[in-house]
Amino acid sequence: MSRRLRRILLALGGLSAVLVLALILAVYLLLQPERFTRMLQSQAEAAGLELSLASPASPTLFPRPGLDLDGITLNAEGSNAPILLAARGQLALPWHTLFGGPTVISQLRIASPRVDLGALQGWLASLPARSTLTPPNIPRIDTGISISDGSLVSGNKVLLDNVSLEAGSLLSGQPFPLSLSATAGGSPWQLRLSATPRIEGNTLQLNNISLHLSQGSAVTLALSGNAHWHGAADASASLAGKLDQADAGQYDISLALTPADQNEPLLLALKLDGPENHANLRLPPLALAHWWSELGNAQGPQLAVPPGSGEATIDSIHAGSVHIEGFTMQAGDNLPAGASSAPGKPGARRTP
């Protein structure tokens, strides 16, 4: 190789290195990682949360503009118990943001997040109570979310593992898709949900709801319908569909939610009809949630029967780790005022 050719190659190599360095510098200046980091932290602060990263965000250009986040920690302000820990995350950005447009995130990807249910419940309990007179609103969420290899824990107990979630943008009048898969109690579960949110006057509508829940090939639940919410306990919904059990057959199932009034609490009517299994129940969801939350309180009062009325005859039904066989229930029409006022079953006490 001649000396002249070597000089040309060296010059081209040096020029390429300069161009690469200039491109890296331009991407860093255009993306301004600290701008997006500050934006995320300010949004977290507005919700009473603290967001920290193990290292500063680093920019990337291919296959699309974005920022890589390492060592994500999210906790309530003043708390040392992390609500979320994640190994890695990435913000995907539209090209117009890269060239000086509005600061918009098109997608948030999170790898290996670990969510602590106890810390999450503690943060939710610390939030100020919202006025029941506040009209419902749809939070505009332009950012799609992608989560892989996540887990939900309570202390040292894993509740959900191998969690994957894909969700689109949440915009009024546009279909909102959500897909979730996880392992619970050693069984694989999958949820697919879609609905179109819309505000009509002072009513939040969820139209064209389609819900599909399955546990492998053993159990499949498919429901469709609509829901409306006016605020507080003024909510209504009507869903109907099929429950398929591989070993037991197919069931017709319907759910109807009626709003609270001066005489009745918020009520959920559940009807199930199929081979050897029948149920027609009216359940107050808020009181039922309170009753369920008290099950793990070893210091609480004697265990009470769950609130509700109606009748159920269950020959055999399976749902994950729950197995019910030969169960019959009849309850009066008068709903208890709350779970704590329901009569307790003699000799039945909660197990810590």
List keywords for this structure.
single chain; 352 residues; alpha+beta; 16-stranded mixed beta sheet; 49% strand; elongated
Q: Secondary-structure map with pairings?
A:
Elements: H1 3-31, H2 33-46, E1 49-60, E2 66-76, E3 82-92, H3 95-98, E4 107-116, H4 117-126, E5 144-154, E6 157-167, E7 176-184, E8 187-200, E9 203-215, E10 219-231, E11 234-245, E12 249-258, E13 267-274, E14 277-283, H5 285-293, E15 309-319, E16 322-331
Parallel strand pairs: 4-5
Antiparallel strand pairs: 1-2, 2-3, 3-4, 5-6, 6-7, 7-8, 8-9, 9-10, 10-11, 11-12, 12-13, 13-14, 14-15, 15-16
Strand order of the largest sheet: 1-2-3-4-5-6-7-8-9-10-11-12-13-14-15-16
Radius of gyration from CA coordinates: 26 Å
| Average pLDDT taken over every residue | 77
Query: What structural class is derived from the secondary structure elements?
Result: alpha+beta
What is the makeup of the main sheet?
A: 16 strands, mixed
Low-confidence spans: pLDDT under 50, at least 5 residues? 334-352
**Which word captures the global form?**
elongated
Helix content, binned percent: 10-25%
Strand count: 16
Number of helices: 5
Roughly how many Å apart are the termini?
83 Å
- Strand proportion, as a percent range, falls in over 45%
Order of helices and strands: HHEEEHEHEEEEEEEEEEHEE
